[in-house]
Amino acid sequence: MTRRITIADIATAAGVSKGAVSYALNGRPGVSETTRAKILAIAAEMGFVPNRAARSLSVSTAQTVGIALRRTARTIGVEPYFMELISGIESTLSAGSFGLTLQIVGTLEEELEVYRRWWAERRVDGVFLCDIGTGDQRLDFIADLGLPAVAVGGPIDGARFPAVWHDDVAPCRDILEYLYTLGHRRVARVAGIPGLLHTAIRDRAYTETAAGLHFTSVATVHSDYTGEQGAQITRRLLSSSKRPTAIVYDNDVMAVAGLGVAHELGLAIPEQLSIVAWDDSPLCRLTHPALTSLTRDIPAYGSTCADALLTLIGADKDTDPPGTEARTFSLQCMPGQLSPRGSTGPAQA
Amino acid sequence: MTRRITIADIATAAGVSKGAVSYALNGRPGVSETTRAKILAIAAEMGFVPNRAARSLSVSTAQTVGIALRRTARTIGVEPYFMELISGIESTLSAGSFGLTLQIVGTLEEELEVYRRWWAERRVDGVFLCDIGTGDQRLDFIADLGLPAVAVGGPIDGARFPAVWHDDVAPCRDILEYLYTLGHRRVARVAGIPGLLHTAIRDRAYTETAAGLHFTSVATVHSDYTGEQGAQITRRLLSSSKRPTAIVYDNDVMAVAGLGVAHELGLAIPEQLSIVAWDDSPLCRLTHPALTSLTRDIPAYGSTCADALLTLIGADKDTDPPGTEARTFSLQCMPGQLSPRGSTGPAQA
DNA sequence: GGTGGCAGGCGAACCGGTTCAGCCGCGTCC
DNA sequence: GGACGCGGCTGAACCGGTTCGCCTGCCACC
Questions:
Q1: CA distance B42 to chain A (A)
Q2: CATH fold for the domain made of B169-295
């Protein structure tokens, strides 16, 4: 348990004042190049690492951002989405030597409380908002607090801070047109949680696209994203008198569950039923047949979100309220691409 | 953007000194009950939340623990294990108002560097060590550093800090005996990463248990835990001349992949092949047939690990080096239970 | 009534950085 | 030769808590 060395140790070792050491280490003017070099050498030799708390206290910056997830232990585990997102966020953050603080919460109230506490404690410099809902209460709350934030999802009308999102409209069209071309006329969609923004966006995109084609029916059933519900809904859909020849799922977990149900019912895939998944985690390639899915690069998405948050925080520090318009920018990522695999095929005559 | 209020604000509002406020807020003696009540009331009214950096700086405690994961973005996402573990850890931490800092690293060197930095920055009060390997270099490194840590896995010979683990020996026996009873004599196991401690433990447990029964063959093939390798190995196993009638997988992702391969090869499950998975995430119940698996409560496991780390940190603070023997305790969790499902059945004659 | 003990509270130092006013020495310019 | 400017560095204040020594006033006791 070696003692941690402080800036004062370096100062005495170098025969200069604490202030000079601080200037030297932070690359600021105020010391000559020769003394700077000497100080840096001594610091490196002694293995100096600044104490975060002390720095945070002076500059009142935490060098940390936070993410609060409002999902249960079980559902958060199966969704590869979150870990991939976090992983992408992390890669950008650690490049900028920022830390990530994670908190899992149960309710909206808890989540808001976490933000308030983080803000009051100066524990984080900014946060990511996941699972953006339609009319999300968190948006105004966070904005009122003055806590820098980036919405992981969008677009958001009249947003008071940046949002990063994928265009979901084009992929919805791609999927429907693809299925239409394969001859499917009776299509069902197992959608995600109804309150979520992207669910609403996809709902609308499907409806509008379907209107332009000549489907017999395009039904949407909402779910909670869990495999259980995915299976249950699929079972219901497939046992109806006029069952669909293709089902589109809003995530990969439900698609896998749906495939399981189809197997259970003895349906041949893709001959008797085509399956499309949204979000192409490795999961989609583990099944047989492999799932046709909408591929998005979630880690890259996370990176982009982190970039947005870091620039927002940086901007906050440099420019002042005049630069407000710069904060509300939104960033659109490349839309997902459809990756056809074995789970989709021509509709049976 | 309301101003954050400080202890000094409360002091002036209450007409006392900063010191008195500190005593009052921390429930320490030094103030009368009446002034304490007054101070608490004022603090609550003003919505006071202490600045973490300032507190950390004085008491040199971060109220935060860290976890570094050394996996790639893709593989970390599919493994429900990690998120479930983190979720469990979180639930205990937030109850003790501790934060969790997460970092994803690429190499061992990076991971060690992260620990060193966290320690030097006083950024965390302790860490969790995941994916414990045989002869893990991190153990001595962390112990030498004097950074409190809990090993998520074990048991570890001559450990210098606590380890929390599940007994893997009994489950291995349970699985083999179960398969034996079903009439399987030719069993294969797709094991995890060879360097990991629990892989070694299971390797040995299988070998020893198998020796006591009368199997024709019990082969073990090691993998990297990914679905790709799981599929590849399964394909090889099933296309060999003397193919196994049952395959045991060391995680759920590979088991799902194996099931996919079996489907692909047209094998009826469980008639022609029985499949057993380790770690019963919801994934195991999504497939058809559902996977027989070894159920462990991973969130509870995470909670236990967090408890161990918190008591270790607490103990560190209260007692001194004399209490060293208390640090090296190990904690064994309830072993996993076998949950038979549709993927296992009697061996074909 | 003088004294000791003690609860209650004050003021200042401290944690380890950052930052700013100010000082010193040197070169430059008028 | 004196005023000025400026690079280089020091010393001290400051961030917002915690903690410790010490002072005060009150009560009990001899």
A1: 16
A2: Rossmann fold (3.40.50)
